[in-house]
Write a structure and sequence with these properties.
Blueprint (H helix, E strand, L loop, with lengths): L2 H8 L3 H8 L7 H13 L6 H8 L4 E6 L7 H15 L2 E6 L4 H10 L7 E4 L9 H8 L4 E4 L10 E4 L1 H14 L5 E5 L5 H16 L9 E3 L4 H13 L6 E4 L2 H13 L9 E5 L13 E4 L2 H16 L10 E4 L2 E3 L10
Parallel strand pairs: 1-2, 1-3, 3-4, 4-5, 5-11, 6-7, 6-8, 8-9, 9-10
Antiparallel strand pairs: 10-12
Helix pairs in contact: 1-2, 5-12, 8-9, 10-11
Protein name: Transcriptional regulator, LacI family
Organism: Haliscomenobacter hydrossis (strain ATCC 27775 / DSM 1100 / LMG 10767 / O)
Keywords: DNA-binding, Transcription, Transcription regulation
């Protein structure tokens, strides 16, 4: 019997049961007595060691990310560590590998008092946020960055994904594209939806009717993604512009174009969200929306430590939005005949 099961048996929230067991003044005497009676009936035992750990400082924070094969998360971690070092804290990195069940397991592990706070970017599979709500109910300081959980009441640090979705699409339009494809990742991720909404609104603004056949719902399966992109280019009315929501889909596009002997940017122009340092070295150099990854890490960590130190709980719940930059390179510029 654990606390979650006890709460379910009582038909009360996790937070209410936890506070009742701690004899919190926020809970009525009647509710406390009911909780204690049910705990005794079900032989629920409070874990004094875990409770003690939660009251102490581990001088450690956790960073939960979906992957490391990505040029975005490296600078973010550097930014986080720069603040952690100033505070005298250690940083533990946990990888979900885009797997929701691993994310659930990690969050359960982190509820035992081994860290003082958590920074998190969601896996592409995460659709149910119950495990994240449990972190909040356990009063563990939590800050989301980039891939956020919209329904969890916690600070969030993001970039201007929607506006940059507009910028990227308009950049392709200004360079002659009329059939622009959007390569998305998991539809439940906030970043994917905001970037796609920017793409759709930019098309409408320029009197281009959105075409559902040009919106590819890609996944974490690289082979499947390449097949989808290949089919897109083999279609009767193939796109003349590609807006990839993440860098791995832009790289897949380059590979498929090489296989099909399509030339970038003559046959198709490509732009994507990416912090890839080698973008300028690709052939042709890749146009990108570059996010302020290092600054996101520092900003998120600064907010997290204010929560850990019990400062500014209320005003910190709002979103912090940092600006990304469009870096135009050869993959989107028309070459002379």
């Amino acid at each position: 019997m654990n606390l979650k099961e006890l709460a379910k048996a009582l038909n009360l929230s996790f937070s209410t049961v936890s506070k009742a067991l701690r004899d919190s003044h926020e809970i009525s005497i009647a509710t406390k007595n009911r909780v204690l009676a049910k705990a005794k009936e079900l032989n629920y035992q409070v874990n004094p060691q875990a409770s003690s750990l939660r009251k102490q400082k581990s001088k450690t924070i956790a960073v939960v990310i979906p992957e490391v094969v990505n040029d975005f998360f490296g600078p973010v971690i550097n930014g986080i560590e720069s603040i952690a070092q100033e505070k005298g804290y250690h940083v533990l990195i946990y990888l979900t590998h885009e797997d929701m069940q691993k994310e659930v397991a990690i969050t359960k592990l982190l509820q035992n008092g081994r860290v003082d706070g958590i920074m998190m970017s969601l896996s592409e599979e995460t659709s149910d946020t119950t495990h994240l709500q449990a972190l909040r109910e356990n009063e563990i300081p939590l800050v989301f960055f980039d891939r956020i959980a919209e329904d969890i009441d916690a600070p969030k640090v993001t970039t201007d994904d929607y506006n940059c979705g507009i910028k990227a699409t308009e950049h392709l339009i200004e360079n002659g594209c009329t059939r622009i494809a959007f390569l998305s990742i998991a539809p439940n991720l906030s970043i994917s939806n905001k970037r796609m909404n920017g793409y759709l609104d930019a098309l409408k603004k320029h009197n281009i009717t959105p075409d559902n056949s040009l919106i590819l719902a890609c996944t974490g399966d690289e082979a499947k993604n390449k097949t989808l992109i290949q089919q897109l280019f083999k279609s009767k009315n193939r796109p003349d512009g590609i807006f990839a929501s993440v860098e791995k889909l832009a790289i897949a596009t380059y590979e498929i174009c090489a296989e099909l002997t399509l030339t970038i940017p003559r046959d198709v122009k490509v732009i994507c969200f990416s912090n890839m340092q080698t973008a300028a070295l690709l052939n042709p150099s890749l146009s990108t929306i570059t996010q302020p990854a290092y600054e996101m890490g520092r900003e998120g960590a600064a907010i997290l430590f204010k929560l850990v130190e019990k400062k500014g709980h209320h005003f910190l719940l709002e979103n912090t939005v940092l600006n990304s930059a469009l870096v135009a390179r050869n993959s989107t510029f028309s070459q002379p005949a």
